[in-house]
Specification:
The chain is of the alpha/beta class. The chain contains 13 helices and seven strands.
Length: 295
């Protein structure tokens, strides 16, 4: 799965702590746009950051919504606690700063693990949940990391090293997409450049993620969720497909869960099919009637 494959090369984009001044050229961990009465909170996973939501955000803004984008991995870049629970606390602090209640939370990949804890621990923030090609994740750990990962910063400083790592990253993105037409030169830069800007910090966080533990079991977290949840799955075969166990862990939520499958789409519904995704997340009435057993 991409959540493991890419994490062995890169983990996230980069930023300074929330609301601190950013260095020149550094991507934002938090962006707020629009003045609508209803708010969407978009939570990124390890890959793509806030820039990965450009297409979805622009369409939501055009419909009159307010959009808050948060990259919890950027917010936690230098933190010792990189559990989902800790990231959910940081995301809650951002949402509190903007005085937001009852938002629709859209989370991609590992961001779903953060969103699930947000819904369980800060229920008044969440009107509804939308997980993009992800389900209930137990821990926020990366793959078993080899000692060779420590040499990635050195590799990127060698002649041709950046091109080699960048190409491996882009190839993994393509393998995890139903169609890679979205992955033009601009999107490739948006996904890869932040990693090279702070590669030492990225690799250091990768090793902390490999040992991340959660304060509560996944079953305990799921039992406290009361918000309706739509799981949007890319139906095209792709390397980063959602794990069966991630869906099975949501079964206790029963009719709160709906499953939507997008034909021809892979791990990045917000990039590959933004129009279809907007239609799903802006449905006027969220009617959780489809149980996991019948999906």
């Amino acid at each position: 799965m991409l959540r493991s494959a890419l994490a062995s090369i890169v983990i996230l984009g980069l930023t300074t702590p929330f609301l601190a001044a950013q260095r020149a050229g550094e991507p934002a961990a938090v962006t707020m746009e629009g003045e609508g009465a209803e708010t969407f909170v978009l939570i990124s996973g390890m890959v793509g950051g806030t820039a990965g939501f450009d297409q979805l955000a622009s369409r939501l803004l055009a419909k009159g919504y307010r959009v808050l984008r948060i990259d919890p991995y950027q917010l936690s870049l230098d933190s010792s606690d990189v559990s989902f629970a800790a990231m959910a606390r940081r995301v809650d602090a951002v949402i509190e700063h903007y005085h937001i209640r009852r938002a629709r939370i859209v989370a991609h990949s590992q961001g779903a693990g953060v969103a699930l804890r947000l819904a369980a621990n800060y229920a008044d923030r969440v009107e509804a949940l939308y997980f993009l090609d992800s389900g209930a994740l137990a821990v926020n750990s990366g793959p078993t990391l080899s000692a060779s990962l420590r040499f990635v910063p050195m590799l990127t400083r060698l002649p041709g090293g950046r091109s080699f790592v960048r190409q491996r990253f882009v190839d993994a993105l393509r393998r995890s997409s139903g169609s890679a037409t979205w992955l033009d030169a601009e999107r490739q830069r948006a996904y890869t450049q932040p990693v090279f800007d702070e590669v030492d910090r990225v690799v250091a966080m990768a090793f902390r993620l490999a040992h991340a533990t959660e304060p509560e079991s996944l079953a305990t977290v799921v039992a406290r969720v009361r918000a309706p949840l739509v799981v949007v799955i890319g139906a095209a075969p792709h390397e980063a497909d959602i794990g069966t166990e991630e869906l099975e862990a949501l079964a206790p939520l029963g009719s709160l869960v709906k499953i939507r499958r997008l034909v021809g789409v892979g791990h990045f519904p917000h990039e590959e099919a933004p129009n279809e995704l907007v239609a799903i997340v802006t449905e006027d009435v969220i009617a959780p009637s489809v149980r996991l057993a019948g999906s």
